[in-house]
């Protein structure tokens, strides 16, 4: 059996990675979604084991120590990481898996899985990105400014990716990602 594809969807915070991933689910029901571990507190409506595995700093440190994370990154004061076992088992079973993670973590995955497909989601413009980060209404102004400056640095790392997808409209962005995955399955390796 051939291995599944590892797809990494990344891009600056607020660009809509989560929204695009949610919209992709019904369109690509066979695609498996990796659930990350984080030390951030749950937002209203988020569920443990569904949106994230919510961990204390100590529990997260234990996961790092036990080499249970494929990658992890500190992002705006919290830790986020991808549980390794689930990704490896999914790929070995021949299924495609998608990781929705920030840019530093994506680059670490690239070191370990250079054969992965790295997709960078772009905002239509930087003004639009700030509106989206503000519009979420869940963050303090200092955190919004910090997320914007992180976003500018992150966009400079786009050159390490295989594909750039503009998130101007959710449905269009999903179509572009579906097309990328379809083309990658047709690729002669
Ligand atoms: P949020 O707090 O808004 O849910 O996520 C903040 C950032 O962390 C987002 O850019 C999100 O994609 C990223 N993120 C979520 N899970 C992971 C992960 O497992 N690893 C890394 N490196 N970033 C993650």
Q: Care to describe what's here?
A:
The structure is a single chain. This protein has one domain (6-186): P-loop containing nucleotide triphosphate hydrolases (Rossmann fold, 3-Layer(aba) Sandwich). A hairpin with a 2-residue loop joins strand 5 (69-75) and strand 6. Helix 1 crosses helix 7 (170-186) and helix 5 (126-135) packs antiparallel against helix 6. A 5-stranded parallel beta sheet has the order 2-7-1-8-9, with helices on both faces. The protein has a 4-stranded mixed beta sheet with strand order 4-3-6-5. The longest helix has 17 residues, at 170-186. The protein has 7 helices and 9 strands, in the order E-H-E-E-E-H-E-E-H-E-H-E-H-H-E-H. With 189 residues, the protein is of the alpha/beta class. Guanosine-5'-monophosphate binds at residues 13, 17, 36, 40, 71, 73, 75, 80-82, 100-102, 105.
């Amino acid at each position: 059996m051939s291995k599944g594809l590892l797809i990494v969807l990344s891009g600056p915070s607020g660009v809509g990675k989560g929204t695009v991933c949610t919209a992709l689910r019904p369109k690509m029901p066979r695609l498996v979604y990796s659930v990350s571990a984080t030390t951030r507190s749950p937002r209203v409506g988020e569920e443990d084991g569904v949106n994230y595995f919510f961990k204390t700093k100590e529990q997260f440190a234990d996961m790092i120590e036990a080499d249970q994370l494929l990658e992890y990154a500190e992002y705006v004061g919290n830790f986020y990481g991808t549980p390794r076992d689930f990704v490896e088992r999914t790929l070995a079973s021949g299924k495609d898996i998608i990781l929705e993670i920030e840019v530093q973590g994506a680059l670490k995955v690239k070191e370990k899985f250079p054969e992965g497909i790295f997709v960078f989601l772009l905002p239509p413009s930087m003004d639009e990105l700030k509106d989206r980060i503000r519009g979420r209404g869940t963050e303090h102004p200092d955190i919004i400014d910090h997320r914007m400056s992180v976003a500018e640095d992150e966009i400079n790392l786009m050159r390490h990716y295989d594909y750039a997808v503009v998130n101007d409209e959710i449905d269009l962005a999903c179509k572009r990602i579906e097309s990328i995955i379809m083309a990658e399955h047709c690729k002669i390796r």
